[in-house]
User: Fold MerR family transcriptional regulator from Nitratireductor pacificus pht-3B.
Amino acid sequence: MDKSPDAFRTISEAAEELDLPQHVLRFWETRFAQIKPLKRGGGRRYYRPQDIDLIKGIRHMLYEQGYTIKGVQKLLRDNGNQFIVAVGRGDVAAVEAITQSKQAEAERSVSDDGVLVGTPKVKPNKRFFGLSRGETEGPVAADSASLSRDNRALLQEALFDLLECKRLLDQVR
Assistant:
């Protein structure tokens, strides 16, 4: 007897439907916090239809698109579960809509003067850029008006990422 599409699946049923071994499903639960099957007495797992859809998307990204686990984790963090579910279903329209929504959100996070809202975790200093006091030439010019608003936002985002990397490296040293 076939189950309803809305019915919960045991791990064996889910593994069969997804064409994955059960141990892979258990492993992915440890790597993707978004996969949360209902666990009943004795630790028996029941996968919701949403869990199955999410796992289909993760499977597609890992096996067919060639992403690493960390890459899929980043996609989930940046775009949310619905993005991965839409990818797994092959719903191109939903993927594009989510991507456009994220881009619009990123554009809204840029203030009117073109500076990203928020502050970096590490305050940049002239030594970091290779400038001594009073210098305005070199890697970073004092006048950034020649850059477009989008390019300045992208450069500032890259700078924040680099500064965070530098902070992490300094902690390790």
Summary: Confidence is low (pLDDT under 50) at residues 124-131, 135-144. The longest strand covers residues 45-47.
